[in-house]
Amino acid sequence: MASAPFSPTYDDRRGRLEAYFDRTASKTWERLTSDAPVSGIRATVRAGRNRMRDVLLSWLPINMTGLRLLDAGCGTGALAIEAAQRGAEVVAIDVAASLVHVARDRAPPGLNIDWRVGDMLDADLGWFDHVVAMDSLIHYQAFDIVEVLRNLSDHTDGSLLFTFAPSTKPLALMHAVGKLFPRADRAPAIEPVREQLLRFLIANAMPAARTGRGERVASGFYTSHALEVLPG
User: Fold this and answer.
1) Which of 123, 144, 160, 162 could form a disulfide with 140, with the two C-beta atoms 3.0–4.6 Å apart?
2) Domain boundaries, position 62
3) What DSSP assignment string belongs to 70-98?
4) pTM recorded for the entire structure
């Protein structure tokens, strides 16, 4: 059974994301996360996502044999596959069935990955040594992000690694430009969050936890900030 954050905006935004990736953008994201040629703008997004994935993977053990990892918002599966190749038992979950289908098809045989469609907060997923949520929380408000982290920490012995959209002037400008596109072509809005506010909210909602490493990746139209939370 899923643990629901307090804010009703979480379920609303989650539903929009599911509809967007399954009905509108599945082919776009399949292509973006492949080696196929893409436009200049999308190439910067691809490069940024690849760099961010490398950052998050560098914060995980090289040898993950015997460890259990949750890829919370796995998309097309690149991070889950890498973690499994390091020996981890991986549960990879996403709200978008179309993306999970691509991920399952791309995964090499023999890896210990449990591909699922559903909610990352489902308590039935079990306990984990590490949780990674790469760019799966960037569409949520700060209070929702922290409540998701608090829920995940209840089932995590080790680190929580996640990314958020940092509140910067260039990012705000790109969002304003994005609103000029026809409504049918728009992705669900990204919610810029101030790092200082996020750290403050985490400290208050999770007093036993501490925030660790942080790193920002900026590549053209891609800007995301990684943060490590170590539950107490």
Assistant:
1) 144
2) 8-230
3) EEET-TTSHHHHHHHHTT-EEEEEES-HH
4) 0.90
